[in-house]
């Protein structure tokens, strides 16, 4: 796969330094000790176009964990492994307006089916249904799928995984609820192990951009010239990113930025810009955007990252609407 640098790196570097200061309005996630140690002032962006051009700026060599961005990947994989009807029988596609780790609707709405795969309850359900007889097998499938997209092997940050595994009381509570109402396909501890390991997969911004690029192209990898997952699944993933990807800020994100995106508490944001949304940008045939800015707001979205993305989307008139 050949990726070419783009002459707009300089402009992007200016925008990154302009929005880096916004990090002061947020804080690194404190509930995962390994994330609390990160430098809150970091900001990085990579954009990879369908034509193979890349713009990048900021702390682009920094590695960070996927966290909730992984929920998009496992949703796509589960649809490929089990078929859409099976997945949709066990997880809905409705936004909640609640926090990402909320438990309330599992009891207040019967039969306790999780509202969508982008909140923890839905993501744990999805992880439980991935192909594989053990958590290890399921995790290997996720890593292999990402390797196909990115073209290199990724690894799991053990420190992040361990620090979450020790403190996952709320996720355990969600998983027990799901087990009780019959939505888990494997034992609670196995589902949690897959879910927390997928959250701890390490990437850089270019890796994220590559994932976004393939989603933007409906599952087709324009640099490998290969369909990696079905178009219908990619379209559903994009709809879920728009309606639920930025948690209970998804409405505002859709209204003022208007692109399918998924955030994680590490400060990662994955964005997919379909061709028709990028006509006035340097990427008129679509692109994927990877952003990292570890200072997050109380909802869980990167403060500087969202502001940078908003600026970019406005300047280049990038919106799906
Ligand atoms: O379940 C958790 O707590 C995390 N490992 C993932 C959460 C996450 O990234 C939510 N994001 N905004």
Please provide a written account of the structure.
The chain has 321 residues and is α+β, with helices and mostly antiparallel strands. The chain has 14 helices and ten strands. The protein has helices spanning 9-20, 33-36, 70-82, 84-90, 104-108, 120-128, 135-150, 158-167, 169-180, 188-199, 205-216, 231-244, 250-256, 303-315, and strands at 4-5, 44-49, 53-58, 64-65, 202-203, 220-221, 226-227, 261-263, 268-273, 287-292. The radius of gyration is 18 Å and the shape is globular. The two termini are 31 Å apart. The mean pLDDT is 95. Bound molecules: 6-diazenyl-5-OXO-L-norleucine (DON). Residues 67-68, 100-101, 120, 164, 171, 199, 247, 263-265, 300 line the site of 6-diazenyl-5-OXO-L-norleucine (DON).
Bound small-molecule species: 6-diazenyl-5-OXO-L-norleucine
Shape: globular
Q: Provide a count of the helices.
A: 14
Distance between the termini: 31 Å
CA gyration radius, whole angstroms: 18 Å
The low-confidence parts are none
Structure in a nutshell:
45% of the residues lie in helices and 12% in strands. By secondary structure, it is α+β, with helices and mostly antiparallel strands.
Outline the fold blueprint.
Elements: E1 4-5, H1 9-20, H2 33-36, E2 44-49, E3 53-58, E4 64-65, H3 70-82, H4 84-90, H5 104-108, H6 120-128, H7 135-150, H8 158-167, H9 169-180, H10 188-199, E5 202-203, H11 205-216, E6 220-221, E7 226-227, H12 231-244, H13 250-256, E8 261-263, E9 268-273, E10 287-292, H14 303-315
Parallel strand pairs: 1-3
Antiparallel strand pairs: 2-3, 2-10, 4-5, 6-7, 8-9, 9-10
Helix pairs in contact: 1-14, 3-4, 3-12, 6-9, 6-10, 7-10, 8-10, 9-10, 12-13
The structure holds 6-diazenyl-5-OXO-L-norleucine.
The site of 6-diazenyl-5-OXO-L-norleucine has 13 residues, from loops.
């Amino acid at each position: 796969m050949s990726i070419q640098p783009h002459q707009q790196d300089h402009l992007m570097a200016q925008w990154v330094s302009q929005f880096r200061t916004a990090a002061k309005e947020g804080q690194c996630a404190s509930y995962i000790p390994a994330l609390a140690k990160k430098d809150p002032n970091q900001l990085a962006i990579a954009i990879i176009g369908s034509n193979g051009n890349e713009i990048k700026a900021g702390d682009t060599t920094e590695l960070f964990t996927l966290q909730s961005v992984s929920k998009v990947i496992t949703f796509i994989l589960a649809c490929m492994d089990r078929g859409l009807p099976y997945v949709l029988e066990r997880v809905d596609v409705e936004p909640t307006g609640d926090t990402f780790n909320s438990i309330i609707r599992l009891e207040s709405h019967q039969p306790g089916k999780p509202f969508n795969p982008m909140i923890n309850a839905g993501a744990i359900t999805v992880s439980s249904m991935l192909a594989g007889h053990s958590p290890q097998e399921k995790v290997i499938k996720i890593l292999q799928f990402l390797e196909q997209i990115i073209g290199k092997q990724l690894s799991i940050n053990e420190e992040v995984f361990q620090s979450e595994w020790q403190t996952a009381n709320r996720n355990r509570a969600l998983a027990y609820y799901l087990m009780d109402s019959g939505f888990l396909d494997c034992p609670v501890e196995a589902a949690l192990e897959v879910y927390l390991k997928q959250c701890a997969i390490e990437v850089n911004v270019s890796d994220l951009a590559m994932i976004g690029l393939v989603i933007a192209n409906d599952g087709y990898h324009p640099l490998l010239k290969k369909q990696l997952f079905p178009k219908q699944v990619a379209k559903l993933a994009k709809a879920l990113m728009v309606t639920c990807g930025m948690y209970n800020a998804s409405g505002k994100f859709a209204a003022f930025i208007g692109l399918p995106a998924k955030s994680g508490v590490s400060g990662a944001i994955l964005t997919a810009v379909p061709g028709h949304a990028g006509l006035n940008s340097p990427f008129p045939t679509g692109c994927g955007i990877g952003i990292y800015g570890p200072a997050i707001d109380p909802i869980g979205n990167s403060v500087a990252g969202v502001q940078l993305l908003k600026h970019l989307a406005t300047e280049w008139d990038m919106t799906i609407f």
